[in-house]
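Tokens for chain A. Residues wanted.
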């Protein structure tokens, strides 16, 4: 329901910026439920017996006409396209089901991560430090404790399944995980979202947070939006299993 309210309450006539695939389709889902609910209620109660058309259905349809087009335009923007592409049949639907552009684009920053770096810039001149997978045979050199500001004991994420299986990543700072190339840990798996989750340090604890991914995250078999991770925990991002140590 929050997705619906985000469109009709916070962005009623906002044709600028971007809207994720999930934001658009969750709004469409709730919109259809309300429309069918109003039509059924009016027909069942006989509220307007002399009306040729369903009155409540029609009033509501006009009330959400502007936000429906506005969120569709922002969905186009999210894929780097002009809102005018909505006028092209079939192609408009294919765009509406397309994932967000990685990072920012000319219509604004990424609606989830807030990243304002365009994909092309990421590929050519990004100075972001990307976490590098370490083979199981490699020797990990721990940083000198006298020069590291963050005195927390780092954790290590070991990939158990998927294309990255066998790789492990020491984590001692904020880390983004997903399929997009500008993540700190890139998982090239179709069922993993472009920006699936991130790990932050809060009050001396490592916190994993879902970034409105399509398939969500699980910690020790339990689906969570936000949770504490520590050695011994098992993280699941769709089909990818990650062990924390």
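Reply:
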């Amino acid at each position: 329901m929050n997705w619906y309210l985000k469109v009709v309450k916070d962005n009623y006539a906002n044709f600028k910026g971007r809207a994720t695939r999930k934001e658009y389709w969750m709004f469409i889902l709730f919109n259809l439920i309300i429309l069918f609910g109003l039509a059924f209620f009016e027909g069942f109660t006989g509220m307007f017996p002399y009306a040729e058309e369903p009155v409540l259905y029609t009033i509501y349809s006009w009330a959400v006409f502007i936000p429906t087009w506005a969120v569709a335009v922002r969905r186009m923007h999210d894929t780097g396209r002009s809102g005018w592409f909505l006028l092209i049949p079939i192609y408009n639907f294919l765009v509406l089901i397309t994932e967000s552009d990685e990072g920012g684009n000319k219509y604004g920053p990424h609606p989830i991560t807030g990243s304002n770096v365009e994909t092309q810039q990421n590929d050519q001149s990004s100075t972001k430090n990307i976490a590098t997978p370490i083979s199981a045979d490699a020797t990990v050199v721990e940083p000198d404790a006298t020069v590291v500001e963050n005195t927390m004991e780092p954790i290590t994420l070991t990939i158990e399944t998927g294309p990255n299986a066998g790789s492990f990543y020491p984590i001692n700072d904020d880390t983004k995980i997903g399929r997009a190339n500008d993540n700190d840990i890139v998982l090239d798996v179709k069922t993993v979202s472009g920006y699936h989750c991130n790990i932050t340090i809060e009050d001396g604890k490592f916190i994993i947070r879902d970034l409105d991914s399509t398939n969500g995250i699980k910690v020790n078999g339990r689906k969570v939006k936000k949770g504490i991770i520590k050695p011994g925990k098992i993280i699941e991002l769709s089909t990818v299993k990650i062990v924390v140590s």
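Residues 119-129 have pLDDT under 50 and may be disordered. The longest helix spans residues 21-45.
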